[in-house]
Design goal:
The protein is mostly helical and about 350 residues long. Helices cover about 70% and strands about 5% of the residues.
Length: about 350
């Protein structure tokens, strides 16, 4: 039955998106090209509204009976309103953060919080007074991480879909039918929008879509993996490896360059891939592939032993660092691992001579 909801939301999204596109054009909710953006024509935004309406249709049809349903409805409503206002009026960052903060508070009041983590070698880490700030940071952080990667046609929608597929698999393994159903409803709504958003896009999801998807993925991952082991807590971080790592390295890059953390630039992952010679479509597909790699790692991680999990983490961190240095995600001169490896290779070559 859960997969039927996915299909219904997929069809609903396909039907609703053209109507939202007309609405965006009528009321001039559009995205104008500038020096930071890769498109050169005025594009309708507000695609997130189509995803959201399809999602609501799925909730109505599925008739979920859970204490977490209303917090999701109210929290997502705050987020979608914030996103729509930003798509129309380009809100200052502080107002967007206020909307995200309010939505996070709704989620926390509804039971979406992280109370403790069972440590791998015994014991328990209780967050106590830090429960609320840690949960707020998680929700706002993931919400903005999805927003930051929304720089190429179909990128945020595709990466979010991959994350939602993984969350659905994990929820099925844990037999958490509520998280499974909500994830599939959201997945269907996003996949139905993707044909209009993939390169060359006919409509952008805008902040309404990126913030909504980020918020929903944040609360679903929090709900699906709350009060569990340390390694289970790492799973949603791995699933969201692409947006999280891109955000972290963006912060590092701006600190190194002595720029405000919130200042925009053209050095995000998708910008670097374009700068390396990949086409628009190829860059998106490469990032899809990276997201799939993270998702597969998350599934393997969930089934591994403690030491197996540690090995997976080390390998992932090595691969991430190597990739970051190759594409210049932090900066052209940031290559500590490559510089460390080159002398070793050179000395071995000289020894042979």
């Amino acid at each position: 039955m859960e997969f039927l909801y996915l299909i219904i939301c997929f069809v609903a999204s396909i039907c609703i998106t053209p109507l939202v596109k007309k609405l965006a054009l009528k009321y001039k909710v559009t995205d104008k090209p500038n020096h930071r953006k890769v498109h050169n024509t005025i594009m309708p935004r507000l695609g997130g509204l189509a995803i959201y309406l399809s999602f609501i249709i799925g909730l109505i049809i599925s008739r979920q009976d859970s204490e977490f349903l209303w917090p999701i409805i109210f929290g997502s409503a705050i987020i979608i309103i914030t996103g729509i206002l930003d798509d129309k009026f380009n809100l200052p960052p502080r107002y967007k953060v206020i909307g995200q903060f309010l939505a996070a508070i709704v989620a926390i009041r509804g039971g979406f919080d992280l109370e403790f983590i069972n440590l791998p070698f015994g014991g328990k880490l209780e967050f106590g007074y830090f429960i609320v700030p840690i949960t707020i940071l998680w929700i706002i952080g993931i919400t903005n991480a999805i927003n930051l990667i929304d720089g190429l046609d179909g990128l945020a929608a595709g990466v979010s879909s991959i994350a939602l597929i993984t969350l659905s698999i994990m929820a099925f393994i844990q037999q958490d039918m509520f998280v499974l159903t909500i994830s599939l409803i959201l997945l269907g709504s996003t996949l139905g929008f993707l044909p209009y958003n993939f390169y060359p896009a006919k409509i952008f999801m805008g902040d309404s879509g990126a913030l909504f998807l980020g918020y929903m993925i944040a609360v679903l991952s929090l709900l699906g993996f709350k009060n569990v082991t340390f390694f289970s807590f790492v799973i949603p971080i791995i699933i969201l490896g692409v947006p999280i790592s891109d955000t972290i390295f963006a912060i590092i890059r701006r600190i190194i360059n002595k720029k405000p953390i919130s200042s925009p630039d053209r050095s995000h992952l998708h910008h670097r891939l374009l700068g390396s010679g990949f086409s628009h479509r190829q860059s998106v597909l490469v990032i899809y592939g990276i997201a799939v790699m993270f998702s597969l790692a998350a599934v393997l991680f969930s089934m591994a032993t403690v030491w197996g999990s540690l090995i997976i983490i080390v390998v992932l961190l090595f691969v991430i660092e190597l990739f970051v240095e190759v594409v210049g995600l932090v900066g052209k001169d940031y290559k500590p691992l490559l510089k460390f490896m080159r002398p070793k290779t050179s000395s071995r070559y000289n020894d042979r001579l």
